[in-house]
Amino acid sequence: MLTRKQHELLHFINDRLKQEGVPPSFDEMKDALELASKSGIHRLITALEERGFIRRLANRARAIEVIKLPDQSVRGKFNPSVIEGSLGKARPPSAFEHQAYISIPVMGRIAAGTPISAIQARSHTIGMPADMLGSGEHFALEVRGDSMIEAGILDGDTVIIRKQDLADTGDIVVALIDDEEATLKRLRRRGSSIALEAANPAYETRVLGPDRVRIQGKLVNLMRKY
Q1: Is the CB of residue 217 less than 8 Å from the CB of residue 174?
Q2: Deepest in the core among 98, 124, 159, 205, taking most CB within 10 A?
Q3: 163 is catalytic
Q4: What are phi and psi of 56, to 5 degrees?
Q5: Any idea what the Cα angle at residue 6 is, between residues 3 and 54, rounded to 5°?
Q6: Active site (annotated) includes residue 147
Q7: Residues whose CB is less than 8 angstroms from the CB of residue 203 and which lie 6 or more positions away in sequence, other chains included
Q8: pTM of the model
Q9: Which segment of 76-85, 162-171, 173-182 scores lowest on mean pLDDT?
Q10: Within a 13 Å sphere around the CA of 18, how many CA atoms are in the beta-carbon half?
Q11: How many other CB atoms are found less than 10 A from the CB of residue 221?
C-alpha cells in the first residue's frame, strides 16, 4: 500500500507524462506536494521505485518511467492513516486528529531548582492524546528553574505527572517536602533515607528522612513551546 504522498506523486508524474511526454522536475514535484525541500521528493521517488511503480532510467536527466499504477479502486477511494497533501484537494483529518484526547488539569508551577510553595489549585486544562499517557490519573505542572536541564527538562516546560505515592529509585518525581514545598527531582533511595537529586551540577542533592518526603506523582511526559 502506498502512503498518501507516494500516491499523489505517482499520479502527478503519470499525468505529466501523458500531457507533455516528460516527467516533472523535482522542483515541480516539491511545489505540487507542498514539501519544504527536494529531499522529501527523493525519498518518495526511492520508495516508489522500490515498490515497483516507477523506474529511473540511467544516464538520462529527469528520466522516470511509470511501470504501473495502483488499482483504480485504490485511486478512487484511498484512505490510509497518514496526513494527506493537497494538490488542490481538501485534506481529510489525519490519524492524529482522530485520536481521543484527555483533559488534564494544570495545577500551577513546580520548582526544578529551589523548592517553592506546594502545588497550587487548578488553573486551567490542557488536552493530550490518550495513547501518550497510559493508565492512571494525571495532572500537569509548569516548570520553573533549571535544576533538571541535563534530564531534558527546561524552565517553562509543562510536565505531565501520573498521580502515585510510590516510585522506584531513578524515577523523576514530584516530591512534597515537609508538606510545604514541592519540587521536581530524581528519586534515589539511600538506605532508609531519600535523596532528591538534581540533573544540574550547580545544585546539591538533598538527603531527607522518609517521614519528610511524600511522593505526589511520577513524570510520564513533557510539553514544550518553541
Answers
A1: yes
A2: 159
A3: no
A4: -90, 130
A5: 130
A6: yes
A7: 113, 147
A8: 0.55
A9: 76-85
A10: 6
A11: 16
